[in-house]
Amino acid sequence: MKIIKGLAFAPFALTCLLATPGLALAQSGKTVLILRELDTDKYDPHRTTARGAAEVLFMAADTMVGLDYDMKTPVPALAKSWTVSPDGLTYTFNLRDDVTFCSGRKMTAKDVVASYERWLNPETKGLERWRAGPVDSITAPDDATVVYKLKKPYNELLRQMAHYMHSVINIDQVKELGQDYGVKAFDGTGPYCFQSWSPRNEVVLTRHAGYNWGPAIYKDPTPKVDKIVWKIVPEESTRLTALQSGQADLSRYLPQWAIKDLKADKRLFVSKADPFYWTFFLGFKIDKPMLTDVNVRRAINLAIDRKALTEAITFGEAVPATSMLATSTPAGKNEAYRYDPDAANKLLDEAGWKKQSDGYRYKDGQLSLLHYGITGYWKDIMEAVQGDMKKVGVDLRVQLFDSTSAWGKLATQEFDEFSMSFGYMSTGEALNSYFLSNSIPTPNRMNWKDAETDRWLGEGSEALDAAAGDAILSKALTKISDGAAWIPLYHDSLYLVGGPRMKPMRAHGIFGAAAYKGLDIELK
Questions:
Q1: Pick among 3.20.20.70, 3.90.76.10, 3.40.50.150, 3.40.50.1820: CATH of 65-170
Q2: pLDDT tens-digit series, residues 214-257
């Protein structure tokens, strides 16, 4: 069965770009054109989990804490220093006193408190609030101090504070715009100001005058260009051609088969993020009638030839998944995460799903699953998966939607299986992102509701000793792996490539946003 496409968008924007020689070069000498594949549904840090949003929000907003390239060391950002109480419950942040929003209003500790209050308010329907930890209170005793008190220790707090969801926002603008916040406008303190957004086309950012408070990983914390245009270009060959020809300047969305040649091109720079944790996976709604049997989920896992898929899609630039996660946590390898179609057929036979003359399986109806996902690179992946499942008698009906509508579709209970890729900094972050009971229906699209998992994730996050926390999280990871709620496909790599006009810069692994704050984006 062929893939059923959802909404698609035409390559008109870059077709015009390529038809006009030197267009990018003919723009302002300090305008940088960045190409990417997908957009998002909104640019509201508290109500989106899309990488497309993260890439822009890291540049348009700031967090109290930044993250070093090692993906584990917190560094000063809006907070120039902090202290932590011996019991791990009280964090006191000393803020810079020279920070302004793009609107010109000075930022104070009250803005930090208001940002968290908005995110944590149930009426906001803020996503992934666990990233804030078990908050007791967040107060501003003066304009330059934030006191962040927890009910229980949370060993990942500082690292999580580098995430874009911890962005400090202008709460006055939120009240003014309501549901249009992050759609019509966004007023942040970041190095670049949100000027305009044309959905499925481009986001335009302009230099934030006077900005000099970037994370401590940057030697020079000031923006180096006047304008950054994030252009949506669905076709990877078009992105590649535009970058090589100098009509675009920067992209992390280039075909992996081209990496070797890009490295050999002396006009370009290629930087690989290391470390980088990003996993491509398929998720099951485990309470759907055809998927409640764990052996059916395990059988489908066994049917997927991850090695062949990874080689075909990434040309050896990614690692086939034999575990759910790419981190060093000592758990997660599972017998289901291998390729064994004979074992898959046997499990399905034992589960009562019998193959008929048409090659598909039946038991009180056909074993047929509805899959939702996002268009773009997933098209080729899902065609391979669809073929593997068909070989063991499973009918997979695939619907892909563009990124502006997909997130809404993925928040429903309409489907049986979905495709997703996601970045993480640790095992705790990965599991908390997807497997907490209170995160149903999104991002816990699997409907994994398990009190023991919730308890282990809480205890693992509360442990002040890293080894003890890791051991607890390993138990949760093992249980989830045994439950085969996912089909992990591969653990990806991340390359940032700059065009002929760009000075070399270092790729960052944070949430797949390779340019991070954009403070080292500089023209030759």
A1: 3.90.76.10
A2: 999 999 999 999 999 999 999 999 999 999 999 999 999 999 99
